[in-house]
Amino acid sequence: MTTLLSFIVLVLLFIVLVLVAKASEVSAELKGKFDFFNQSKINGYLLMGFLVLMFVGSAYSYKLLAPVMLPKSASIHGVQTDKLFNVTMLIILVVFVLTQVALFYFAYRYNESFGQKALFYPHNNTLEVVWTVIPAVVLTGLIAMGMYEWYGIFNVEKRAKDTLVVEATAKQFNWMLRYSGPDGKFGTRIIDTEHITPTNELGINWDDKNSHDDFMADKMYIVKDRPVLVKIGALDVLHSFYLPHFRVKMDAVPGIPTEFYFVPTMTTEEMRQYLSTQEWWQTINPETQEPRWKTFKYELACAELCGKSHYGMQKEVVVVTQQEYDEWVKGQTAIYSTVAPKEPTPPAADETKTALLSH
Q1: CA 221/CA 73 separation, integer angstroms
Q2: Same domain, 149 and 250
């Protein structure tokens, strides 16, 4: 509330200053004392002052906010993605600084002055070529880098055979995570009104024996250095599967299965140890009264505005060793053992209205 009130006060103060300046200008014009040339010079100085304040403010904001930005990537492809992002931002920064300095300097240097005549300069072929070719070459390079990384991430032929497959299905406002059991195979799903029930929202086909050891998880468990393939879907509206620390983001679209492949490189505990060396993460969290790094958790979030409770659509992601993962799997309960016996036996599915999502 204090921030909102402060913002309102600043806006109102700005409006008052504008109105006072406008009233003063109108008054001077009515009295015949308004000096256009002097005002132009003052505006030039003000613009240069604004340029300096803008750069100082931007640098201060970066210094203030950089520690709370995402830590280093916890996946293999994320390292390359970050490099591409940093190169793009560096180019944008250089262009921004050069164009803004030129813009404000020209407003200052060539302000309206008595006895000075503007030069009519309608065209220059050299300049046209320079500011067309250089951006085209730079953008082509960025696109080529992006395509190279894109094909590296989505190259199906290079995927490892020991991939851990997780099925993530989005709904308002939750993520449903399904794992295959010891057999390593998911049971099929039948999307029709007979199979989808309040206790079987995914429409799992209990007649498929592969479904008998599948289990649901409250947290997303994945293994360090073991490739992960997430098969993504949605039951209602558009969602977006987002793992910021792994640089993973893929839309969840109703009726259109999507997927993302990545390799985690740091367990949750290893990331905490790394963050314990970072200054901001060593500060005390007022909510837990502990250093921030101690309570760090990887997060699965929804990056698509999907409704009023979109902000709460989160799951914890836990990266562990293979041994720890195997122990966790042993403690899980198959969906079939708790849900299927209570489900009424559905009639034979009509082939004309049934869609099997075997993923």
Answers
A1: 18
A2: no
Tokens encoding 130: 């320079």
Shared domain for 170 and 137, answered yes or no, is no
**Angle between the N-to-C axes of helices 76-109 and 36-65, in degrees from 0 to 180, rounded to the nearest 10:** 160
pLDDT confidence of residue 112: 73
210 and 313 share a domain? yes
CA atoms of 144 and 138, how far apart (whole Å): 10
- Whether omega before 50 lies within 30 degrees of 0, making that bond cis, reads no
C-alpha atoms less than 13 angstroms from C-alpha of 157 in its C-beta half-sphere? 1
Residue 170 CA to residue 49 CA, distance in Å, equals 50
210/276 same-domain check:
yes
Q: Do 95 and 168 reside in the same domain of the chain?
A: no
For residue 36, the model assigns a pLDDT of 57
Same domain, 47 and 167: no
Stretches in the chain below the pLDDT threshold 70: 24-25, 27-38, 114, 340-359
Q: Please indicate, yes or no, if residue 359 is contained in any of the structural domains.
A: no
- Answer yes or no: is 5 within a domain: no
CA distance 34 to 25: 7
pLDDT at residue 170 in the model:
95
Label residue 179 exposed, middle or buried (CB < 10 Å: 0-12, 13-18, 19+). buried
Contacts for 327-330: CB closer than 8 Å, 24+ residues apart:
328/221, 329/179, 329/181, 329/182
Q: Are residues 265 and 135 in the same domain?
A: no
Q: Whole domain around residue 136: which residue ranges?
A: 125-158
Query: What is the predicted pLDDT for the residue at 357?
Result: 45
Examine residue 202 and state whether it is found in any structural domain, yes or no: yes
CB 73 within 8 A of CB 246: yes
> Residues 60, 186: one domain?
no
Report the alpha-carbon distance of residue 72 to residue 74 in Å, rounded.
7
Structure tokens at 97: 């600084």
**pLDDT score for 5:** 85
| 197-249 tens-digit pLDDT | 888 889 898 888 999 999 999 999 999 999 999 999 999 999 999 999 999 99
Whole-number Cα distances in Å, 290 to 64, 185, 282:
21, 42, 9
